[in-house]
């Protein structure tokens, strides 16, 4: 069978930046082994599959090695595919996912996603974490998904070259590192490492900002943020903390449109 495929750079206004995602619309979900094999073949941080459902869409996300319960950049890219290619008269779409319904609204040139907030709690630095990243964090928090480490400054964050094999052993799906931004245009910066999921460093991670926003809110005494993920590709994420929900806003650029043969 053949299926359409779109490759979209998310959380950016220019190609070759932000986070690339592959979006594949289907009539129905194929067996999980096939979905995973296609994601491995694409070899991007995420491949998202869309299936029509009651006027909206079911949505699933796969890294090259595993299915994940939430992905921001591939949801943003999926919204762009729906509202710019599949149904260009739409200005809103609801994706039904493992993390519940996710509403995305068009907002000028970009899109606003409504995601679940992921608060975290402070813990002692887990054994091996400081050695894995080469610096002692000022604070470490965790939730059921990730560790997050506060670093002294943006320069330290950008200079990190973690030991990926050591990060796999720390016992979480991923590690977010964050610091207050040196650039007055941004409130905080971050990077995200998830080698256990087959993603050594994710370029721009929407779901990580569902943990970052509630962390920075009491420290910066605000609930609306302009954030930058300081990976080599880089990307801007607008975050608005709304209690148990977090709004994430960003833009997308189409890179590739074609077909896959499965």
Summarize the structure.
The protein has 262 residues and is α+β, with helices and mostly antiparallel strands. The chain has helices spanning 32-42, 72-86, 129-133, 154-159, 164-168, 206-220; strands at 2-10, 19-25, 46-53, 56-62, 67-68, 92-97, 100-107, 110-116, 121-123, 139-142, 146-150, 174-180, 188-194, 199-202, 224-229, 235-242, 245-250, 252-261.
Q: What brief labels describe this structure?
A:
single chain; 262 residues; alpha+beta; Diaminopimelate Epimerase, Chain A, domain 1; 2 domains; 44% strand; globular
**Gross CATH architecture of the largest domain:** Roll
CATH topology value of the largest domain: Diaminopimelate Epimerase, Chain A, domain 1
- Overall geometry comes to globular
Oligomer: single chain
Strand content: 35-45%
Q: By helix and strand content, what is the structural category? A: alpha+beta
Describe this structure in words.
The protein is of the alpha+beta class and 262 residues long. It has two domains: 2-116 and 248-261, Diaminopimelate Epimerase, Chain A, domain 1 (Roll), CATH 3.10.310; 121-243, Diaminopimelate Epimerase, Chain A, domain 1, CATH 3.10.310. Helices cover 22% and strands 44% of the residues. It is built from six helices and 18 strands. It has helices at 32-42, 72-86, 129-133, 154-159, 164-168, 206-220; strands at residues 2-10, 19-25, 46-53, 56-62, 67-68, 92-97, 100-107, 110-116, 121-123, 139-142, 146-150, 174-180, 188-194, 199-202, 224-229, 235-242, 245-250, 252-261. The chain has an 18-stranded mixed sheet that branches. Strand 2 (19-25), helix 1 (32-42) and strand 3 form a beta-alpha-beta unit. The protein is globular and about 50 Å long. The mean pLDDT is 98.
